[in-house]
Amino acid sequence: MRFPLAPLIAVLFGLVLLSLQLMSSATQESSQLNEMYSSLLIINALGSVVLLGLIGVNIVSLTQQLKKREAGSKLTIRMVSLFVLLALAPASIVFFFSMQFLHQGIDSWFNVEIDRAMEDSLELSQASLDQRMRWHLRQTQQLVDQLYETKSETQRMDDLEKIRAQAGAAEMTLFSRQGRIIASSSINPGDIIPHLPDEHAWLNVRRNDHYVALDSTKEEQLRVHVIVAVSTQDIQYLQALYPIPLRIMDLADLVEFAFVRYQEMNFLRDSLKLSFSLALSLVLLMSLLAAIWVAFISIRNIVAPVKELVKGTQAIAAGHYNQQLPVLTQDDLGFLVISFNDMAQRIAKARDETRLAGIEVENQRAYLETILANLTAGVISFDKDFRIRTANQAAYRIFHLQVSGFYGQTLLDLSKEHSDLADPLRKIQHLLENAEDIWEQRIAFLGPNGLQELLCRGTPLYSPEGRSIGAVVVFDDATDLIQAQKNAAWGEVARRLAHEIKNPLTPIQLSAERLQHKLANELQPKSLAILQRSTETIVQQVEAMKEMVDDFSEYARVSKKQTEHINLPSLIQEVLALYASQGGAKFTTSVEEEIMMINADRISIRQVLHNLIKNALEATEKNGNVKITVSNRFKNNARFVEMAFHDDGLGIKEEHLDKIFEPYVTTKAKGTGLGLAIVKKIIEEHGGAIWIDTGYKAGAGFVIQLPAV
Amino acid sequence: MRVFVSTNRLLSISLWIAILAGLLARPAFLHADDSKIEVRSIDFALRDGQYYLSADIHYQLTQTAREALQKGIPLYWDVLIKVVRERTWIWNKTLVDFKIRYRIQYHALLNHYRVTNITSSDSTSYASLPAALAGMSTIRNIAVLNEGDIAEDESYQVGVKTRFDREALPLPLRPAAYINPQWYLSSDWLQWPVQK
Q1: Which of A45, A214, A274 comes nearest B176 by C-beta?
Q2: Residue B27 pLDDT
Q3: Nearest partner of B102 among B81, B135, B77, B82, judged by Cα
Q4: Contacts of residue B72 in chain A, CB cutoff 8 Å?
């Protein structure tokens, strides 16, 4: 609840001014307010005290606000200080000079000459009156002689009357020695009782035979009071009262009045200064205090919107945008507040819109993420330092690791943790670092499910300004696709071979046999021998060729596996038993466990073992050693059975290392070159992997991993 | 003397405080001289069915007051006379409350002091200040109460005080009169039980 301040202030100021005006009027001698001076002084002093209290309260509250660092308090202090300074400085100057003028003015009323003149004039009037008194005394003394001769009572009365009239006295009385009235005469017949002298007068008369003094009547009129002794045997006294002429009396009065007034003023000089100073100080104090108080109030009013604005700003800074400030005034500050409210509204609106947009963006992002996550292609994005920013589920599936756990790391960091993935990761990193445009690369690596072929496509990302901001790599697991392509290609080759090569082989063989049969009886024994050798060679070679084509078609044929659980160690033993009767190389097997199960086609695995054993036997001389190791492996969260063949034969030449598993690659004089290719095919069909143990230098080493059951 | 505290007294007290607050550093006052104004005796007697009051007041002026008088400033005193009936539980009842106002003034021309009883408009001139003060000091036979106003079974007090009227001083002197002991020219109350 705000009460109207302006009228209150106006009323207060009015009261202050009124009381000051009253005090000022009270100092006028004639004023009715003269009697109220002290009360007015108290009222004004109390007013000052009240104002002082108000200001004190304001100062205290302001200090508290400042301590609390409340909004607007510093501004208030600055403005109040400025205001007080502005009010105080001129007021003090005016006060100082007023005081000076006042004191000088009062002092200038008095000086020695006037002092002297005043005293002299009083003395002059006193002297004049004195002279008159003495003159009347002498006159009265002379009159006594005339009175002396009188005898009778009535005669005496007449004489007295005559003498009084002659002397111009207002009243004459004859007293006996004891002070009894003998006769009396007055200018005013109504005065029956004459003026009676007091003790003091009698005392004087008895001592000096005469008494003279100035007397004042009840009407404050001066008269000369003379008493003289009438020198007879019974002493009598004559009292005469002479009026002072009106003109002289007026003059004397005026002189006395002026003198007294001057004396009084002189006496009051310091008090006058003090009281004027007091009044002036009170005026100054009250006006200053009132001004300061009003300053406090008006500054508080001015600062109030600023305070609100500061609070509002703080609220907005803290994120409370629904802030609406009250519009207190219609001035510039009010306009500011209105603008502030508008701004707050707009910010709130903008915030809401941003929030909605954010939600929208978030939805979009989530949608994209869902799409990304459900892509079969792995997507990994990198920042400009090639640290992983995002990765989708497919990336995990392909790499078999939680890529998202490595956000903020580079692929190199990742490769340190996962040594089995080191190769492809390093390769991708290398490509990322060196690519300036979209690149595409096929990367093969040995995953948990055997050899994996990735089709990677990297795109460097650029900001609109052309700065590199990272890259995105999309990769597909193309293992199956490539395998299928290869298989299809080899199948086609095999079909053609069967068709184009195998078909003519039978007529060739039949023709050779027929030649031998028909010509056996007609030829010379010598020629027959040649024929027989030649036809035999042809038949043999055709057989070999047929065999080769069969082999090849078998390799190329899409396998129809019948998988079952196989205990690998026992299968190895079974196969090895077939070779035990043959002389030559010596087989040693070491098995980690007696039972190590795999899920595979028994015939295919047998073929793998045969091929590898044959391979080893062919590679070793007589007395060669072949070591077969079967062990468990655990990698990429999957269990594998690892089977290693190590012989001490000739080994594999360096240049053949990368092509040893391709068809028709062989180091041997005989053989189709399909042995290892078929092995690799079978192993890969089983989700396993085969590679050459390059670390083994004593001969050839093959390592096979098959998923364990 | 709570009984006799008047509004004037309150005024003077508050003025005292205000002026003390206003004029901060004034030296402490010493009682410069032993001038003491007091009511010396009261005679309250029943004669012819009326109670008459007589009192003797001793006036003695301080240096400042004397000087002010000599400079022509008139001084005013109010002789306050009060008769109260004492009551045990509540405020005393005031039966009589009146004042006699005196003025003393110096006449430079005639070199005499004039004492005026303003209440009765009597005035007397005196050649000397002691005579004038003596003239002012005696109060004789003022009829105050009828016999019937006094009940037999109650107790009464009569009080006399002379109070210097500071407010009658010239305006510039007034503030100072409240703080300068030289202007403390009032007596205390003198109380006397009424003899029946």
Answers
A1: A274
A2: 40
A3: B77
A4: 259-261, 263-264
